[in-house]
Structure formats: structure tokens, C-alpha cells
Specification:
The protein is an alpha/beta fold. The chain folds into 2 domains: 4-190, Rossmann fold, CATH 3.40.50.620; 203-304, GMP Synthetase, Chain A, domain 3 (2-Layer Sandwich). It has 11 helices and 9 strands. Strands 3-2-1-4-5 form a 5-stranded parallel beta sheet, sandwiched between helices. Strands 6, 7, 8 and 9 form a 4-stranded mixed beta sheet that branches. Residues 101, 143, 146-147, 150, 194, 196-198, 238, 272, 309, 313-315 line the site of xanthosine-5'-monophosphate.
Amino acid sequence: DWTPDSFVETTVQELKDKLGNDKVVLGLSGGVDSTVAGVLLHKAIGKNLTCIFVDNGLLRKNEFEAVLDSYKHMGLNVIGVDAKKEFLSELDGVSDPETKRKIIGRVFIEVFDAEAHKIQDVKWLAQGTIYPDVIESVSVNGPSATIKSHHNVGGLPEEMNLKVVEPLNLLFKDEVRRVGRAMGIDENLLGRHPFPGPGLAIRILGDITAEKVALLQEVDHIFIQGLKDNNLYDQVWQAGAMLLPVQSVGVMGDERTYEKVVALRAVTSTDGMTADWVHLPYDFLAKVSNDIINKVKGVNRVVYDISSKPPATIEWE
Ligand code: XMP
């Protein structure tokens, strides 16, 4: 029978046999899959695993520092790469969603590749691919066909002559979480909502600037922290905020304002393929809306997305 403990035991042994004394590189994203893959590999080969965690400048507020810290606490040999400037400058002036995704995917590979080349004698590229990713990459339906293009470090294995190892590729998400729990990974990491590879870039409709990223990080932080403080976070599959490319009229004192609009989205889902909007309590939404408008300069209107998928997607781009 499959149990998380027996999976850990057999997989660690298999990885030891397969990898021997070889060096392995793995990209960490802060997400559940790559984290569990990293800890499994670390158990098997210790310091022969080098993890690379790239800050693309499009993560949630304080996310990079916090997650890098937890990785170090878990004993992982992890290199944090600050590539914020590269990503932002390559994205400068770009509004088309698919172009943004392509740029982010390309810059990620460039940054990852440069770091990986610094590791002497690396033989393997590890990936946190799980079973649904394997299926997804062979099906071609809409945006999901490009979903993993960022995580999947395509091109790198051939160019660097790396072999690929994917210890989670027969598991479903809930099994990955159970395996993570069995290895003692923090619930804060295991219970995290999914977050898209291109990050806030696809939640800023239109072109991206450092100011817009900073503004959306504040809005998102108030919303997500609010969900956590009110015990709503675990009832939601994914949540986030979108910065809309419109301004709307408001009033402050005797003055009219003309400022930004943000949309909040929270959904329940099992696999992201279909989703329902969450009926968050009105008083919670009221409080979050007030907090955002009072604390985030430049925002004078908050709306809540009440569309289900299909036909609306979870992300707005
Ligand atoms: P949609 O918006 O298609 O999203 O309903 C379904 C799930 O996929 C995530 N998503 C992405 N993940 N790269 C990713 O890694 C992407 O380009 C991308 N686009 C959407 C989305 O956050 C949701 O979990």
C-alpha cells in the first residue's frame, strides 16, 4: 500500500542508487512541488544537491526573503539570485500577456543557466514535475498548454548535457503534500496557494513598472494576510489581486480623485481546470477594501471578481 513514509523511504533509496556521487541542480520556486522535491533529494544526496531560487521581482511582498530563509533552515544548499532588474528591464513596455510569459520564461532560463554553469561537474537537472504536469504537457487546451513553460527549464538539459530526474512525477498534489508532511516540512510551505510562474506580471494588466509591482504587492499582502488572520486562507484554493489598466473617479474631502482600480479574486478548485468564486463574508470584504484604499496610495476603488471558470479563467491575463 502507498503511504507517504514508504514513498519517502523507497524514493530516497532509488535516488541514492541512481545519482551516486553525482551533482544535481534544482530550481526552487517557493511552491509545494519544488520544495518537496528539494527536501527529498537533499535527504538522498545532501550537499551534492544545489538549489537555485530566482527572485524575478514579481513575487509576493517579502516572499523571496521569507522563503529563502525557510529553505536555509531546512538545511538546503540554496543559492538565491536577485534578478529583479533583468526581468523588469526585459519586460519594459510589454503589454501582451503571452509575450510577457515568453520573456519571463526566457529570462528565467538565462539566469538559471548562468548559475548552473557555476556548479562544477553538474550531471543532473532535477524538477518538481508532478503527474498532472506530465499529462498537461501532452494536452493542448488553451492557456494550460503554456502553464508550465516557465518551471520546466526547457533547453537547458540538452545544452548542458544534463540528465533529468523527476522524483515526484507519479504523484498527485495531495500526495506531494502528504510526502512533504511526512518529511516534516513546515505547514506554511505545504499549505501555500498555487502561484503562477510569471507571478504578478500577469496580474498587472498592461505594461509593468516597478511602481505598479510595489503597489500590487501591498494590495495583495493586505488581502492574503486578511485571509490568514480570519481563518479563511485554507478554505480558498487560490487568491490574489489584479491591477487594472483603468482609473476611476473618486472623492476625497472636496477633491475629485482619478486613481487606480484593483480587483480581488478568490476561488475554490481541485486542479485549476474549473473554479468557483468564493463567497467571502461581506464584512471581511468590506474591511479588506477599506484597508486597501486607506493604506495603498493610488488606489481608490476595489472590486471583487464573482466569475466562475469556465468561462472566466482564474487569472485575468
Ligand atoms: P487560469 O488563469 O488559466 O489558471 O484559469 C489556472 C491555473 O494556472 C495558473 N497559471 C499559470 N501558472 N504559468 C504558471 O506557472 C502561467 O503562465 C500561468 N497562467 C495561469 C493560475 O495561477 C491558476 O493556478
